[in-house]
Design a protein that fits this description.
2 domains; 5 helices; mainly alpha
Length: 89
């Protein structure tokens, strides 16, 4: 029943224009941006530290996995953003 209710485009459009849904979207975007900036700062500090560089030298496989994970994560986020922008409204 709920799925059929949410399948109605007019209902979804009305819900999307409500304050709680718009506010939730704003908070989600804000949180994403803050965590992204925080993560980038932490990553920059870790890369600059001698301890991190030593750890990478000792175990290069971990470094490769981290870089691969980060690239895939960012690529997936960018793809989702592009897909959402391309959807007709």
């Amino acid at each position: 029943m709920l799925l059929s209710f949410l399948a109605n485009e007019q209902v979804v459009e009305r819900l999307a224009n409500t304050y709680p849904i718009r506010r939730l979207a704003q908070l989600t975007h804000y949180t994403y941006r803050r965590l992204t900036l925080w993560g980038n700062d932490a990553l920059d500090k870790a890369v600059k530290s001698n301890e991190a560089q030593e750890s990478i030298r000792k175990n290069p496989q971990v470094s490769k996995r981290l870089v691969s994970f980060t690239r895939n994560f960012v690529k997936n986020i960018q793809n989702e953003i592009e897909n959402n922008q391309q959807r007709p409204r």
